[in-house]
Amino acid sequence: MRKPLVGITTRHEPYDSARKHHNVYPYDYQFSPYAERVARAGGLPVWLPNVAEEVSPELYLERIDVLVLSGGEDVDPRQYGEDHETDTLHISDERDKFELPLVRAFWNEKRPILAVCRGLQTLNVALGGTLYQDLAQFPHASEHRREGRQYGRTHAIRVIPDSRLARVINGDEFTVNTSHHQMIKDIADGLRAVAWSTPDGIIEAVEPADERPVLAVQWHPEMMDDEASDRLFQQIVGAAGK
Q: N or C of the chain: less Cβ packing under 10 Å?
């Protein structure tokens, strides 16, 4: 039986003309745990480089069964109609140009999507939503970017009991890691919030209002070695072809 082919998006580092970081060529990369968790869930992982001008999203629809939107850089506020309002932004035009059309293509075809951290934000923006550009813009925000220990469990979330997420993690409370400084502000049409950070009310997960096989979380399940995180990957990989 053929394993589902799972495309995982990648971070992008541009050519550094000043050689501050010694990358004389641009490169795409992502952390290995994404691929490891996909493989553990029964999928065949492949990295997707940021090649918007060379490859159309429709070509990926012909080959890729499942899309994993990984973490990384900030989505450019201009993609949701705002100017830059903070100097904390780390954006990648190449990544936005590649990922946003790809997300819309998979969404429109009702293909399985697992969106992680930036991935949740990308999904929301691709469908017409907006973001808080920095934690400082969110009233009474707690710290969500713990340098040096950002992938350790740091805060609890509250999950809507009748949501798909609650069924996947088998509960309505969960403790997660955190590594982000942006978050959803206005939810896109077609999505609903299903989990919030209990310290401050930041949206921690969204899912479709219909039955599309899509799960989007603000934390990093690929960095959490537990059954609930495994089930997130199993749920999406297992949705291929259904």
A: N
Distance between CA 157 and CA 19 in Å, rounded? 42
Q: Which residues are catalytic?
A: 117, 220, 222
Count of beta carbons in the 10 Å neighbourhood of residue 204: 28
| Cβ proximity of 24 and 54 under 8 Å | no
- Least Cα distance to 120 among 182, 65, 173, 164 occurs for 182
Question: How crowded is residue 99: how many other Cβ atoms within 10 Å of its Cβ?
Answer: 29
In sequence order, what are the residues at sequence separation of 6 or more whose Cβ sits closer than 8 angstroms to the Cβ of residue 130? Answer: 80, 81, 82, 124, 184, 185, 186
For residue 52, which of 104, 108, 99 has the smallest C-alpha distance? 99
CA-based R_g, the chain, Å: 17
| Tokens at 121, concatenated | 């934000």
Which fold would CATH assign to domain 5-238?
Rossmann fold (3.40.50)
How far, in Å, CA of 155 to CA of 175, rounded?
6
For residue 18, is it left (φ>0), alpha (ψ between -120 and 50) or beta?
A: alpha
70-126 pLDDT per residue, tens: 999 999 999 999 999 988 999 999 999 999 999 999 999 999 999 999 999 999 999
φ, ψ at 76 (rounded to 5°): -65, 125
5, 44 contact by CB (below 8 A): yes
